[in-house]
């Protein structure tokens, strides 16, 4: 998930009042240092290079920089040591981010700051990359979708089943009942928007009105911020839910759980919860789509003389597998229809046998074996 928790000034290592020249010089120096050509295969450098590019794209453009500075002043990037502008609405820490971005800000979070996110997406010209971000722009009043990575066992993934989850969600702060003010203190008119709850930007001759970032569109800000939510009126909590996982999900599979996302502001409908699965490896089974692979040891006698072995299936049953005489180590047998069932399809189970060569023979066993070797004429 893309975050813009980084401060562009820090990214370029320039002071806030740096002039164009300083910014350009800093950019050139860093871009050279982190250029992919100079750091082949280094992902960190590549990321840094991108960051530097983003920072420069904004700071080198007067218009964009002005808007960025404005956002930055409102604390949209969770910086400045969590310090509060007097009377300011809670920045960073109060407006919850995604499950992964500890205090980080995503574009959609910016969206929550009153549609400035749109503005920023445009500035960065970075849309939703390869559908990786499941949060939708969000209709007015509806809650945000929450994306959550979930690790599940091989068995649950293969056969389906129920799992319990702790979902991080945003709820109205119980201490201040959403007002953002410490109980017993007052709210005052927002100095930024004069209490209207919206601010206007000039854009190509039009004045575009946006919810005020300072008061989050409420028009009022607390005298003394509530200590629990730090003035935001919302707190981050975990909600425990049970989810039924369908059979056949794999690493990267997504599952939508309707209505379990973030609560909509002002009683609006909640967003959805999007689960992204990561399947833990199994000590016995490996998986290839709906097919299942496993390796079973057999002894020398079973391999030479043939045998019947019991093999466990993914469904928890056992099948009898016939090993013909003279089976070589590494031979793979297919057990039809014992793979994973996903919708209409059911895969097969592949059993590879590994012949175990006996170790630590007793004197007598050793003599027997040598006699066998003699008779089979294997002494070359
Ligand atoms: Zn509160
Ligand atoms: Zn305001």
Structure notes:
The protein has 380 residues and is of the alpha+beta class. It folds into two domains: 76-279, Sandwich (HSP40/DNAj peptide-binding domain), CATH 2.60.260.20; 294-375, HSP40/DNAj peptide-binding domain (Sandwich), CATH 2.60.260.20. It contains nine helices and 17 strands. It has helices at 8-12, 20-34, 43-59, 62-73, 107-112, 116-124, 154-159, 300-305, 363-375, and strands spanning 146-152, 161-172, 187-189, 198-203, 206-211, 220-222, 234-245, 254-257, 273-279, 286-288, 291-299, 307-312, 318-323, 332-335, 341-342, 345-346, 349-356. The protein has a four-stranded mixed β-sheet with strand order 10-11-17-14. Strands 1-9-8 form a three-stranded mixed β-sheet. It has a two-stranded antiparallel sheet with strand order 2-7. A hairpin with a 2-residue loop joins strand 10 and strand 11. Helix 2 runs antiparallel to helix 3. The longest helix has 17 residues, at 43-59. The chain is elongated. The termini are far apart. The protein binds zinc ion (2 copies). The site of one zinc ion (ZN) has 8 residues, from loops.
Outline:
With 380 residues, the protein is α+β, with helices and mostly antiparallel strands.
């Amino acid at each position: 998930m893309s975050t813009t928790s980084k401060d562009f000034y820090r990214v370029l290592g320039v002071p806030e009042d740096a002039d164009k020249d300083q910014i350009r010089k800093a950019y050139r120096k860093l871009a050279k240092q982190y250029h992919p050509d100079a750091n082949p295969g280094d992902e960190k450098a590549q990321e840094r290079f991108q960051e530097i590019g983003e920072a420069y794209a904004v700071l080198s453009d007067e218009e964009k920089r002005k808007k960025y500075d404005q956002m930055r002043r409102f604390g949209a990037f969770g910086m400045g040591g969590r310090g509060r502008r007097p009377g300011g609405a809670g920045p960073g820490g109060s407006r919850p981010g995604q499950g992964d971005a500890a205090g980080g800000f995503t574009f959609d979070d910016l969206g929550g700051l009153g549609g400035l996110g749109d503005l920023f997406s445009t500035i960065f010209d970075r849309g939703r990359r390869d559908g990786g971000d499941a949060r939708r722009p969000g209709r007015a009043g509806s809650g945000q979708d929450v994306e959550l990575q979930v690790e599940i066992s091989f068995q649950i993934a293969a056969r389906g089943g129920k799992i319990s989850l702790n979902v991080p969600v945003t709820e109205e702060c119980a201490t201040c009942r959403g007002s953002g003010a410490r109980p017993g203190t007052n709210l005052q008119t927002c100095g930024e928007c004069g209490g209207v709850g919206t601010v206007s930007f000039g854009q190509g001759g039009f004045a575009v009105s946006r919810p005020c970032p300072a008061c989050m569109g409420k028009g009022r800000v607390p005298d003394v911020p509530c200590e629990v939510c730090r003035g935001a009126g919302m707190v981050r909590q975990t909600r425990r839910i049970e989810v039924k996982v369908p059979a056949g999900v794999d690493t990267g599979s997504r599952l939508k759980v309707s209505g379990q996302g973030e609560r909509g502001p002002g009683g609006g409908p909640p967003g959805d919860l999007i689960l992204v699965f990561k399947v833990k490896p199994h000590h016995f089974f490996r998986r290839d789509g709906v097919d299942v692979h496993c390796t079973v040891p057999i002894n020398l006698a079973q391999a030479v003389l043939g045998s019947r072995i019991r093999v466990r299936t993914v469904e928890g049953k056992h099948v009898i597998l016939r090993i013909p005489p003279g089976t070589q180590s590494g031979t793979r047998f297919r057990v039809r229809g014992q793979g994973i069932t996903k919708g209409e399809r059911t895969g097969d189970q592949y059993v590879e046998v590994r012949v175990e060569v006996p170790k630590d023979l007793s004197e007598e066993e050793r003599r027997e074996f040598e006699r066998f070797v003699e008779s089979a004429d294997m002494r070359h």
